[in-house]
Amino acid sequence: MQEISKGANVSLTALSEDAGAVVVSLSWSSASGAGDADVSVLLVDGDGKVRSENDFYFYNNPAAADGSVQLLGKAPTGSGDEDRISVDLTAVPEGVARIVVAASQYGGARFGDLDDLRMTVADRAGEPLVGFSIHDAGVETAFIFGELYRRGEEWKFRAVGQGYETGLAGLATDFGISVLEESEAGGEGGGGVAADAEPAAQGAPAAEAEPGPPAGPAAVPPAVPAAVPAGPVAPEAGGSAAVPAQARGRGPRTTRKKVTLPKVAGNSLAENDSWRPARLFPVPTLKSDKEREVRATSVLLSVMAQVPEFGRRLTAAFGAPAGRMQTFTEVSLPHGETPRRPDGVIRVERAGKLWTALVETKTNGNPLKAEQVQQYMDIAARRGYEAVITLSNDVALEGTAMVDVKIDGRRKHKVSLWHLSWAEVAHQAQMLIRHEGVGNAAHAWLLQELLEYLRHEQSGCHGFQNMGAAWVPVRKGIEDETLAPDDARAVEVVESWERLIRQVCLRLGGELGQKALPVQRVRRGSDPQARRSAAAQKLCRDGRLCAELRIDGTSSVIAVTADLRTGKVRTTVDVPAPEGSYPLTTVKRLVRLLAEAPADLHVETLVEGGNGPRGTLERLRPEPGDLLPKGGAPLSGFRLSLIKGMGNTRGNTESGFIRSVDEAVDRFYQGVVAHLGPVEARAGSRRG
Asked: What is the 3-state secondary structure of 272-305?
């Protein structure tokens, strides 16, 4: 991968023969775990302005109708998380000269509070091409990381690194988007403030007249909730203005009408509970793992081909172009004397070119077989296919290969290997039909039927379900205090724990309509294996598995601790005390906010330099003054915790450990964090 500095540019075509579609990644880390930003993409013409509101892509307008741009959302990495954007350069309209990639913060946060700001561009096969790190961030609330732009017949990348103190409002104004006050939102366009443009190209070769970065920060009031294009560009009939990140407190709005389904079905016409609704994909007849694999592959691939938003959502991250998709099952492909039959094939056609991926499926917790995947990689390389996709209940981890395969470096054609968890499939389907919407009611119904199928106990597609063979001996060694500090099985348990937390995040995020991500408090570039080894040593020493997760768009960090010695799961969040308020008023307000919270919630007062009074919510409700620190010590906040018994088995049975952790997080969020309202929960620091 080529590293470039601020203002420099490089040809993507010169770096890769397969740069027709790229994946752009924006990443950062935060020492507190609470730092975050929202990604946005603007398509601008030769004058540096958007052509219409549909050229502005952000969390509430995540994909272009032509497939040229799709925000893939956040994904966890070994040192934090990163936002990924799929850009199909072959689908970008001719009138677009530049693709500007930016990010913005909200709630008074600044980019100087984040570490390791970085942008990378990878080709269709996932091979990193170019990277750019930002080292001078300070008080800015919005940042242009970089841009892709046309130069003749090729596309180039420029490292911009320009910040705005006026947030997304100032940035958007520079590109021809009028920012409206809340009272004007939804009204006619034209009431916004336009910024003057000024050339600011830095580091471009003198012999080449490159398009410069946008103008400097505009004098626009920050944190305004709606934006529409300036000047003659008007919203579509019946449409609504795009809403930038600062509008998170308001209901979601999009530029197009989408169909979503209610969480609760209407009144049933069945005579009693024994009547079961007819399902498009019946499950109870499945008797063997082979039958489950065949049925699951066929069901998934058929829905992907019929629901464009869903098919594109799953394949864009694998470098597939936007185009006409067809899917196939049980295809026979030559391989020596014995033909091989991958479970499925995905083909996407665009502009007469084909993108092909072979699919290998496992269900019911069955592991992928390296020899089988290797054969499909070899077949794909010989036939000029682009990818092999493995699909199973397991969850991929940063720095850990799902299967070990050998890549023949002598082959000019590259084949990429990708992994998808059934939990991720269910998450994406739920995000579309519950929160983001799809094109029509029939597509929404198809996705609902897919979800019902995946959730059925007979489907075998339930996601990560087993803590592995090392779980029982490690847990017994901790209980007996016989586990050696360097026991290799402890690392296996830590990896299983990490997979479990990532799956918990997928399920919680699907329910909330926001990404939920594990938090890593380490510097970028740290070795994931070294981090897991350190966690394994802590497990052997303290008998605890610890993790943190954060809900996208909030600063809430939920700490989860599984204490294998006591058999308890603790979920915790810290709530800061409002500045300048009276201690008794602050305590009473917290108790009011937690009126619907579980009575067994533990509340602890936090004071500077130590801990204050504590008690259960049941005891504190009639006497909130009991939370006041003794001796008039300054009140800094509160620590809220729920404690739940831990399951005994390694799998996801009724008494299983996996189920107990999942239920603990769900109960804590729904019963506690969701009721905090305007009080923002901050880093739930793990104790001990």
From this structure: CCCCCCCCCCCCCCCCCHHHHHHHHHHHHHHHHH
Radius of gyration of the chain from its Cα atoms, rounded to whole angstroms: 26
Pairing of strands 2-3, 128-134: parallel
Nearest to 20 by CA among 362, 384, 354: 354
Q: What is the helix (H) or strand (E) element at residue 104, kind and residue range?
A: strand 98-104
Distance CA 634, CA 588 (A): 16
CB atoms within 10 A of CB 103: 24
How far is residue 126 from each of residues 63, 134, 351, 629, 670, measured CA to CA in Å? Answer: 20, 22, 22, 54, 37
CA–chain centroid gap for 527, Å, is 21
pLDDT in tens, 218-243: 333 333 334 444 443 333 333 333 44
Contact 33, 573 (CB under 8 A): no
Please write the tens of the pLDDT for every residue from 234-289: 333 333 334 433 333 333 333 456 888 877 777 888 888 888 888 899 887 778 88
Strands, E assignment, 393-483? 416-421
Indicate the length of the chain as a whole number: 688
Tokens of 546: 């610890």
The closest alpha carbon to 517, from 28, 8, 16, belongs to: 28
The torsion angles phi and psi of 275, rounded to 5 degrees, stand at -75, 130
> pLDDT digits over 496-543, tens only?
999 999 999 999 999 988 888 888 776 666 778 888 899 999 999 999
8-state DSSP, 649: B
Burial of residue 259 (number of CB atoms within 10 Å: 0-12, 13-18, 19+): middle
Which residues on adjacent β-strands are paired with residue 549? 518, 558
Task: Answer whether 382's CB lies under 8 Å from 370's CB.
Answer: no
